[in-house]
Amino acid sequence: MKTLIHKANTRGHADHGWLKSYHSFSFASYQNPERTNFGMLRVLNDDIVQPKMGFGTHPHQNMEIISIPLTGALSHKDSMGNKRAIEVGEVQVMSAGTGLTHSEFNDSKTDEVNFLQLWIIPEELSVKPNYEQREFLPKDRKNKLQTVVAPKDKVEGNALPISQQAYIYRTSLEADVSLDIDLKSENNGLYIFVVEGAIAVKENLVNKRDAIGIYETEQVSIKSIDTSELIIIEVPMD
């Protein structure tokens, strides 16, 4: 088993006034050759958008884009005709494929929006663009894994499809709970992002907004130190 730790205070940071963004990997003006990706996980941005502000219409191509609101609601509009808000408890997936444009906006006059946006490199280029959005109930991830994203050829239950052999899980752990995760493939790794709380993975303590990457193993064991909320991304490493 190999591990890497990304402490919260070592992430890239950009403050545009209307947007505060923390980058786990190289993005925009933050360029770190030691943090370009974790396997097929290319981007994990922790964004805070001020009231009545947002991202104007911009393009994407050949990327799997996953958005997970943590607080507030983010309005979305795209070139495929989708126009709706993404709210806490929901997950949004866009397979950009041959190309699309979209915008994201915080319609609230008073409340910030905090959301995570992940980019995963697709296994197949130039697919037909696809958009899906779904609610995932908190009770279904209490002290267990809740699969919110899965490969489009292996989707089970309510999981949202992407064009990559990757999975995204959510879990809410009470304090002093152990969770064992069996990886889908020996070529995969796990990138665990701690939204709230603290966990231990072997001798590694991982606190709020820290992340740990684990690879070259078949199973990962997590123990919660405090009540914790985790986003777990399983991706091919090459």
Shape: globular
Percent of residues in beta strands = over 45%
Q: What name does CATH use for the topology? A: Jelly Rolls
N-to-C SSE string, H for helix and E for strand:
EEEEEEEEEEEEEEEEEEEEEE
Count of spatially separate domains: 1
Strand count, sense and closure of the main sheet?
A: 7 strands, mixed
CATH class value = Mainly Beta
According to CATH, the homologous superfamily is: Jelly Rolls
Helix- and strand-based class?
mainly beta
Number of helices: 0
Question: Based on DSSP secondary structure assignment, what is the total number of beta strands?
Answer: 22
Low-confidence region ranges: none
Arithmetic mean of pLDDT: 97
Physical arrangement of strands within the biggest beta sheet: 1-20-17-22-15-13-14
Radius of gyration, taken over Cα atoms and rounded to an integer in Å: 17 Å
CATH architecture: Sandwich
User: Roughly how many Å apart are the termini?
Assistant: 16 Å
State the share of residues found in helices, binned by percent.
under 10%
Task: Write the topology of this structure.
Blueprint: E1 2-6, E2 12-15, E3 19-23, E4 41-49, E5 54-60, E6 64-71, E7 73-78, E8 83-87, E9 90-95, E10 100-105, E11 113-120, E12 130-135, E13 146-151, E14 160-162, E15 167-173, E16 178-182, E17 188-196, E18 198-201, E19 204-207, E20 211-215, E21 219-224, E22 228-236
Parallel strand pairs: 13-14
Antiparallel strand pairs: 1-20, 2-3, 3-4, 4-11, 5-10, 6-9, 6-11, 7-8, 7-10, 9-12, 13-15, 15-22, 16-21, 17-20, 17-22, 18-19, 18-21
